[in-house]
């Protein structure tokens, strides 16, 4: 059943929801949470489809917030709320409310959404794209116990990771982190089988892929070893190599579907490691509503190291300094300055190369 309401209010939407449930013969509410989706018209269909698929595992009231930007000055002053209500077969296993906010109302979306939240139920806010830099600090984000974004959808995914680390609040998460859950599980299981001592690691994947960066940060944070980030043509994350004293552990996935696990002293094994759809990622995130401390630790560890590498001054070349002190030009400031200038230029180029290759 679908009900369209134009120039409506939150109280009228609530009344229409109650009446719609009675009309289809299901007056009882069996939903476990409220999922608020903040998106635009272009991405609303795909986001709602993923949410409906996820609702088969997590019955929920889905509230889609679409902010309609007005073109004229007069229409920007006029506030209007249009709503579309879906219950029954049109709304998965829960119920759906699509809100379209016009005019000044786009700046007060939280006031519209608040009366529509399920009482005594958790609230999850999801931005399929266009998430604010401070999730918890935004008006709608403050309503949720969990806040889901996707840095893969950002123009600058690596820069977005740095922003997420700066503004992180308990309850924030990222679908780029969810994408690597099978990789983390497989690597942890491989290290649990035998007492391998890892001395270094390499993460290989396509450029500008935040999942690769997050996996590298997680390995560096948990194993306390150097982690190298290398590039490949993809798709996505393609390989992880762990160097141990007994040999190399390799988890490689060249086709985005089937991976191979190679371990010292054991036969190679094929592992199902397919790239998952958004609905599967969303369903995984809705299984837990407590803060993800592992994500927080990996996110902040990586950004801190990235800043240190970018902000550190260029080191002086020891050989050039020794020549300047012992050579014929030790007392001549102009001759001593030339080698130092060349030495400073070299680290700067390395930092640029690191920045260019810093991607998933």
TrEMBL record:
Every Glucose-6-phosphate dehydrogenase assembly protein OpcA N-terminal domain range: 51-166
All residue ranges annotated as the Glucose-6-phosphate dehydrogenase assembly protein OpcA C-terminal domain in the record: 170-299
Pfam family, one: OpcA_G6PD_C
Chain intervals for the UniProt region annotation (Disordered): 310-360
Bias type Low complexity, positions: 310-327, 335-351
TM region positions: none
Name of the protein in its database record: Glucose-6-phosphate dehydrogenase assembly protein OpcA
């Amino acid at each position: 059943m679908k009900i369209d309401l134009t120039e409506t209010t939150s109280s009228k939407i609530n009344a229409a929801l109650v009446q719609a449930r009675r009309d289809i013969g299901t007056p009882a509410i069996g939903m476990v949470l409220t999922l608020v989706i903040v998106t635009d018209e272009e991405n609303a269909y795909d986001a709602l489809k993923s949410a409906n698929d996820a609702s088969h595992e997590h019955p929920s009231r889905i509230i889609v917030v679409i902010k309609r930007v007005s073109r004229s000055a007069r229409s920007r002053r006029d506030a209007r709320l249009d709503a579309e209500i879906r219950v029954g077969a049109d709304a998965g296993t829960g119920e759906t409310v699509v809100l379209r906010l016009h005019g000044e109302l786009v700046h007060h979306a939280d006031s519209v959404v608040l009366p529509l939240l399920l009482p005594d139920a958790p609230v999850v806010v999801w931005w399929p794209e266009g998430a604010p830099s401070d999730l918890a600090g935004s008006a709608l984000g403050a309503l949720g116990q969990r806040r889901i974004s996707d840095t893969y959808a950002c123009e600058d995914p690596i820069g977005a990771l740095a922003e997420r680390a700066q503004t992180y609040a308990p309850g924030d998460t990222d679908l780029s982190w969810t994408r690597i859950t099978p990789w983390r599980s497989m690597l942890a299981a491989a290290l649990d089988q035998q007492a391998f001592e890892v001395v270094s690691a390499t993460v290989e994947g396509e450029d500008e892929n935040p999942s690769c960066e997050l996996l590298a940060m997680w390995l560096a944070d948990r194993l306390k070893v150097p982690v190298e980030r290398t590039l490949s043509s993809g798709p996505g994350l393609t390989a992880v190599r762990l160097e141990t004293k007994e040999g190399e552990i390799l988890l490689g996935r060249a086709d985005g579907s089937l991976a191979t696990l190679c371990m010292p002293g054991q036969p190679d094994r094929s592992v199902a490691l397919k790239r998952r759809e958004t609905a599967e990622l969303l369903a995984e995130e809705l299984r837990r509503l407590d803060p993800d401390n592992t994500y927080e630790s990996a996110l902040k560890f990586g950004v801190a190291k990235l800043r240190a590498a970018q902000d550190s001054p260029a080191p002086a070349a020891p050989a050039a300094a020794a020549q300047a002190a012992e050579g014929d030009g030790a007392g001549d400031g102009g001759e001593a300055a030339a080698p130092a200038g060349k030495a400073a230029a070299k680290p700067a180029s390395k930092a640029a190369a690191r920045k260019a290759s810093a991607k998933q």
